[in-house]
Design a protein that fits this description.
globular; 292 residues
């Protein structure tokens, strides 16, 4: 089967499986965020991995090059940066937002036990990269482990990173409509929220894709994704009620996410394509890449 057909099949399966689970939430009369809906949302995170496996079976391409090996050799320093870097970016993103919007900062933290913010930061820094790694692997085995390598056989690396990020963002559309990340009390709901999620996934996908390609493994992407899921909501402990979360303070906001966007742009501009993750690409395709 041609690569384009493999990509289309994977995308159809990844969206269909996840969107069925997403849509079960309103169909069953559940409220977004309640325990039973969280079970469905967690299950949906495995849809890209399941889609990858099904596509490999249907197309008979097998299970090689799944990028599951962590490849620690020669990458220890990168792993240290991956372990702690996203937490620092989350903290800096919150600080950046409150510097721009000091009126949205809530100085009265009496509703929380003493030290809850410091404890949250410590927990995210120490266990954030691994606490959610199983469900985030459910996504990354599909987006960065299957879709990205396939796209790189058809397009330049930069184009592949952009396409995969946009697709990843649109995949979230049903839960954005339900209020995921941004609620439902903002101008141009839900369209602005969907756009903000696509922007966020585009830039986060560049960061995750960068390390996937550099280290020939989806483990770094899953670690980054795990930290983001664990710590993204931390600035909400410090913000006044009723703020427009499409703007911030979380990293999923168009302003709150700017520090992440800057890192992604730097990696995107300075990137030079390695000779990994190219499995059966032709030499001619490799020479034509604008990253070389």
């Amino acid at each position: 089967m041609k690569i384009k057909s493999q990509i289309v099949l994977f995308i159809v399966l990844a969206f269909s499986i996840a969107w069925i689970l997403f849509l079960l939430i309103p169909l069953l009369g559940l409220t977004y965020g309640e325990p039973r809906s969280i079970i469905l949302l967690t299950g949906a995170m495995f849809a890209p991995a399941i889609a990858s496996l099904l596509t490999r079976v249907i197309t008979k391409e097998g299970f090689k090059n799944m990028l599951l090996k962590p490849n620690f050799k020669g990458n220890v320093q990168k792993y240290v940066g991956i372990y702690f870097g996203p937490t620092l970016l989350i903290l800096f993103s919150g600080l950046f937002y409150f510097l721009l919007f000091p009126q949205n900062y809530n100085p009265d933290l009496s509703q929380y036990p003493p030290g809850i913010v410091a404890l949250g930061i410590t927990q995210i820094a120490l266990v954030g990269p691994v606490i959610n790694i199983i469900p985030t692997l459910g996504e990354e085995l599909g987006w960065r482990g299957y879709l990205l390598p396939k796209l790189r056989k058809l397009f330049s690396d930069r184009t592949s990173l952009v396409i995969s990020g946009v697709i990843w963002g649109l995949w979230h559309a049903p839960v954005i409509i339900m209020g995921h990340n941004y609620g439902n009390q903002y101008p141009l709901y839900p369209y602005l929220g969907i756009i903000a999620m696509v922007v966020f996934c585009l830039f986060l996908g560049i960061i995750e894709g960068y390390f996937t390609i550099k280290m020939n493994s989806v483990i770094p992407a899953a670690m980054i994704h795990s930290t983001v899921n664990a710590g993204a909501a931390l600035p909400l402990l410090l913000v006044k009620q009723g703020v427009n979360q499409v703007i911030g303070p979380t990293i999923a906001g168009l302003v709150g996410g700017i520090p992440f966007f800057v890192v992604a742009i730097i990696l995107f501009v300075r990137w030079r394509s390695p000779k990994t993750l190219q499995d059966d690409q032709s030499v001619e395709r490799e020479k034509l890449s604008p990253f070389n």
